[in-house]
Design brief:
The chain is of the alpha+beta class and 582 residues long. 74% of the residues lie in helices and 7% in strands. The protein is built from 17 helices and five strands. Strands 1-2-3-5-4 form a five-stranded antiparallel β-sheet. Helix 9 (304-331) packs antiparallel against helix 12 (362-377). The longest helix is centred in the middle third of the chain and has 76 residues, at 226-301. The protein starts with a helix and ends with a strand.
Length: 582
């Protein structure tokens, strides 16, 4: 459909790099597990799995400030408030590093207690491997923290390609060093951790080049109201990261329950399941990056209909991916066990059944996960926090209770508990939506924007342009801009649309461009979006006015008649914003 063209271009241009970036964050850990288990045996994977609760917790702490700040920054960038975006970045960067350094210091001080919490001394070989791995990986968190902050802000700035390049190089370096340190140099599991630290340093260096390039919309700046922004970011990010923190606690408790009832064999199955679950979660995180970045732009514009369509595309894709992975785990579980180094025939026969049963948890788990993230983005933070906590409780309490009654019920309790909780969540959101007729039934999405707005999807032909200009005039008259300012808006839109038609149109495949007009109490905003090649309709091809004044008359008029004009290329779109004050 024509009205979906710009949204499709935004979604597709961001999708590959966003998901690839998120997947690579998990693939690095999986690479450590696969390479280490191939050289050191299945116990190496179990040791890395025992580290994952700490890894999940620390990653959630990194995201606590970075995630909320990048979401707020996306809205600031959409409003052309780049100084506010820089303040968000500065506060998030400093706060994240400070808290990670504090936690790493505490972990180092109480290192023996930390290892005893993660691993069981009664399984000495796995305990020793866990200790060796964690002792080196603590340093990796210090490097990873600023990298995570830069990744999220670069995505919010509409430039995920640089993030993908950084993550791809990090992944390649990590994999190569894993084979070198473990296979060739015999450094054992410590070698995997050393490879991670070195690769993180390389990736961080690549991201710094973007920060220093002058092309980004944010940077370090002096912040006078640091505590106020800190509290705002913390409030925004807390509900979004609680799920990550609870997953770390969940994994920790699950490891201990499984070790008690099923020993090292059950621990290996849980390790494989958690690796696959974490990979699917990272794919979903990639889709969530689109929600928080491109979606943040739409929310900042007040374009709620585009936000809803963006969610529809992302959720549909996630359902398909999770369905495929679930079917693969149900019908060919042996493949996953072999990948992680388990080849013993008797063990595989027993572990196949466990893995195929626990795989059924994926679909209800992600129904809850996606809904809680979307609810948090839309301001329903308490609802998001409640179901994050309930999800962690269900993953622990239900299997534990089932195992105390009948040991064979343990694996079936995972999908059963999640399915019940997913049904409760959908019922809860349905009841809440009935209280407000302006919210959708399941996701509580706004059905109407806070401001009066209209979106025009324009074909690349003169008749469509003429109709669009009439619609702009009708809207300006409706919001009582006055005859003089209405005429100014029409002339400005006509000049910029002609530039789009001439220089950067994407006419193939039934393309179109958009004009979004929004009425605010003090101003009217006109935003033009074109999915063609990078080109600013506010400048000339040579970037300069002609000396005799024969060229650039239209641009001079646009700058004179609008209170403000700006352009930015992000999410694969040319986005030009005009502001007319009332």
């Amino acid at each position: 459909m024509k009205k979906d063209y710009i949204i499709d271009k935004t979604f597709c241009s961001f999708l590959a790099v966003s998901i690839l970036t998120s997947i690579m964050q998990q693939v690095r850990t999986m690479t450590d597990g696969i390479v280490a288990s191939q050289f050191l045996g299945p116990d190496a994977l179990s040791a890395i799995n025992l580290f994952m609760p700490l890894d999940s917790f620390m990653y959630a702490v990194m995201m606590l400030f970075a995630l909320g700040a990048s979401f707020l920054s996306a809205q600031d960038i959409a409003k052309q408030d780049f100084s506010a975006a820089s303040r968000q970045f500065t506060v998030a960067f400093i706060s994240s590093i400070a808290i990670i350094l504090t936690i790493v210091g505490i972990c180092t001080l109480f290192f023996d207690n930390l290892i005893s919490l993660l691993a069981d001394r009664d399984i000495p070989h796995i305990y020793s491997l866990t200790r060796d791995y964690v002792s080196v990986m603590l340093a990796a968190f210090v490097v990873q923290t600023p990298m995570v902050v830069l990744c999220l802000f670069a995505n919010s700035d509409g430039n995920p390609q640089r993030v993908t390049l950084s993550m791809l190089v990090t992944l390649v370096v990590n994999a190569g060093l894993d084979f070198l340190f473990i296979g060739s140099l015999g450094m054992g599991i410590r070698g995997a951790a050393c490879a991670t630290i070195i690769s993180e340093c390389v990736g961080f260096g690549i991201l710094l080049t973007y920060l220093r390039s002058g092309k980004c919309s944010f940077g370090f700046t002096r912040v006078k109201n640091f505590l106020s922004i800190f509290r705002h970011i913390l409030s925004e990010g807390l509900s979004l990261t609680l799920g990550m923190m609870s997953s770390g606690v969940t994994a920790l408790l699950l490891n201990h329950i499984v070790m008690e009832y099923y020993g090292d064999s059950g621990l290996f199955v849980i390790a494989v399941a958690i690796q696959i679950l974490a990979l699917c979660t990272m794919i979903n995180e990639g889709i969530n990056e689109i929600y928080e970045s491109a979606g943040g732009m739409y929310l900042g514009e007040g374009d709620y209909s585009s936000f809803r369509q963006l969610l529809g595309r992302g959720n549909t894709l996630m359902v398909v991916l999770v369905g495929v992975v679930t079917c693969a785990m149900v019908f060919v579980p042996t493949m996953f066990l072999n990948i992680f180094g388990e080849y013993d025939t008797q063990s595989v026969e027993r572990e196949d059944r466990y893995l195929s049963i626990i795989s059924l948890v994926l679909i209800p788990y992600f129904i809850i996960y996606v809904n809680t993230r979307i609810h948090a983005l839309l301001g329903f933070k308490r609802l998001s926090i409640v179901f994050n906590i309930l999800q962690a409780i269900a993953l622990i309490a239900v299997p534990f209770a089932a195992a105390t009654i009948n040991k064979d019920w343990f694996w079936w309790a995972f999908p059963a508990g999640m399915a019940i909780l997913a049904a409760i969540q959908m019922l809860t959101t349905f009841v809440l939506s009935k209280r407000s007729k302006l919210r959708s039934r399941l996701l509580l999405l706004p059905l109407l924007p806070n401001e009066v707005s209209t979106k025009l999807c324009i074909n690349y032909d003169i008749e469509s342009v003429k109709q669009a200009l009439l619609d702009v005039r009708a809207f300006a008259t409706l919001v009582e801009m006055g005859e003089e300012k209405t005429n100014r808006a029409i002339l400005c839109c006509e000049e910029l649309i002609c530039n789009i038609l001439k220089h950067c149109s994407d006419r193939v495949n039934g393309g179109c461009f958009e004009v979004l007009i929004t009425d605010f109490p003090d101003r009217m905003e006109v935003r033009l979006k074109d999915a063609g090649k990078p080109f600013s309709p506010t400048t000339f091809k040579n970037g300069e006015f002609s000396e005799d004044g024969s060229h650039g008359v239209g641009l001079r008029l646009v700058k004179a008649m609008s209170e403000d004009i700006s352009h930015k290329y992000m999410f694969g779109l040319n986005i030009t914003t005009l502001i007319f004050k009332k």
